[in-house]
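The protein record quoted in full:

***
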Amino acid sequence: MRAALLTRIRNYFHEQDVLEVDTPILSSAATTDPFIESFKTCYTGPGAGDGKPLYLHTSSEFFMKRLLAAGSGPIYNLAHVFRNGEFGARHNPEFMMLEWYRPGLDHHALMDEVDDLLAVVLDGLADYRPAQRISYREWFVEGTGLDPWVDSGTAFRQFASQQLGESLPALDEDDMDGWLDLIVTHWLEPRLGTAAQFVFDYPPSQASLARLRGGEQPVAERFELYFGAVELANGFHELADADEQQQRFAADNVCRTKRGQPQMPADEALIGALAHGLPDCSGVALGFDRLLMVAMEASRIEATMPFGFDRA
């Protein structure tokens, strides 16, 4: 099954004239995202002095953006990625990620392509139809009656207390993202149906690597795809401003310090690539093993892997 789906993916991108690229697994930079932890190792060979810290990449995104800035055109990558501390029914510390980038497309056009790809890849294996689409704001208003752009953290705390019980995490009332994430994972996601659904246009505080769109109520041009209540993909209309990206890296490290986590070395090569010029593009990362879970109707991710974490 793994081999069949990998072949279908590569055939799809070959027909779309999207180039497969190969990127390093070891990097001198790490993710600064407070909610993702990198594995750290050390090179001790010639020229390393007392040793050079290296990190197993959590995504091939930064390398791929450097290729885009160098003029690669549309590209995709199938790679093993690594995230420390993530293990469970849908998480493995090592897993396979499909990522691709499309110059000239916004996040809505890329959602169209995600639909096209999955219809081809899952043909005969799962009943995948074009995903329903709902904005993050509409998702919350319909599911909770609360508006993340208007209502306070107090209102979200009250909702969580009433609907999820008294055993709530110790979140500050001004930690809006904490309350939003709690309600997404414990209330909204469990109520998703079996059909595929895109959620798009996230709060600016959850932009991650997406660009912001201004207006009366600014949004991050980002989407996530769920299928059968399984989160499959995360996509962005990519941020291309080097100064803003540097500020986000710095803000991440400030947040890590507040949370008692070590600061991580930001990718200065990516900042240089953005300063050189990233084409207007959108990109998406899709968990290949989770896609296999859907195709196989598996309840645990290790069922899709030749060697899961406990057998590696």
Observations:
- The chain has nine helices and twelve strands.
- The CA atoms of residues 32 and 264 lie 5 Å apart.
- The chain has one domain: 2-131+195-311.
